[in-house]
Amino acid sequence: MAILESREQVEQWLAATLNVSRETLAKLERLEQLVREEADRQNLIARSTFDTFWQRHIADSAQLLLHSGPVAEGQPWLDLGSGAGFPGLVVALIAPVDMVMVESRRRRIDFLDHCIAELGIASHTRTAGKRIEMLESFPADYISARAFAPLDRLIELATGFSTDNTVWLLPKGRNAAKELESLSRKWQSVFHVEQSLTDADAHILVGRGRPRDRHRSRSSK
User: Who has the most CB within 10 Å: 5, 11, 199, 200?
Assistant: First the structure.
């Protein structure tokens, strides 16, 4: 796949590949405005990425839907460490999932709640304003995390929300393969590595389910 190198390319890709409407593109543009406005109050994203916002943040988030499989309305999606709303807000604007964004920092919680209201997605998007350790677990069909924690710690914290069918979508930059090697063999077997569309050196860890308990599987037959 070709690397997306401009906003124009991103918009064309969103329309052609993910069937993103003009209305949703306008909302993604509004999200960019909200992030830029908030940048004067808190450090949401690196200022060095402002000029490549649509590649580094919009497309980088939206590309997870290439690996999610078909998404049905109301499917629960858990996004860990949502920060500025990536990938959570972008996915919630494009796909009809029930998005739960986990963020514990007060100013970021307030920002995310403001974005949800401004973008008109409160019916299927909410912020869980607490650490994931304090969040009551629920079966998530999708789990995503961008710059949240080292992979082994991320898995440890999120496993309680996973099922045998959960799709894990974890952008991990240039160290994806190395981080995958840090997991136990049983967890390594859950994941594979996909190329990112926004950086030739970056990758996404995509997984399904969780390791099977062989003893339980045999005894349940």
Answer: 11
> Strand 167-173 vs strand 203-208: parallel, antiparallel, or unpaired?
antiparallel
147, two tokens:
């710059």
Whether the predicted pLDDT of 220 surpasses 60: no
What number of other Cβ atoms are within 10 A of residue 165's Cβ?
Answer: 11
pLDDT (average), residues 24-30: 98
The structure's pTM equals 0.93
> What pLDDT does residue 1 have?
61
Q: Which two tokens stand for residue 142?
A: 């999708």
Q: Which residue has the higher pLDDT, 218 or 88?
A: 88
What span, in angstroms and rounded, lies between the C-alpha atoms of 27 and 21? Answer: 10
Beta bridge partners of 100: 78, 126
- What single letter denotes the amino acid at residue 110? D
- pLDDT average, residue stretch 131-151: 94
How far apart, in whole angstroms, are the C-alpha atoms of residue 91 and residue 141?
A: 14
Q: pLDDT value at position 213? A: 60
**Strands lying side by side in the sheet with 203-208:** 125-128, 98-102, 76-80, 142-145, 167-173, 203-208, 191-195
* More confident: 178 or 31: 31
Helix (H) / strand (E) element for 115: namely helix 106-119
CA distance 152 to 150: 6
Q: How far apart are CA 58 and CA 198, in angstroms?
A: 10
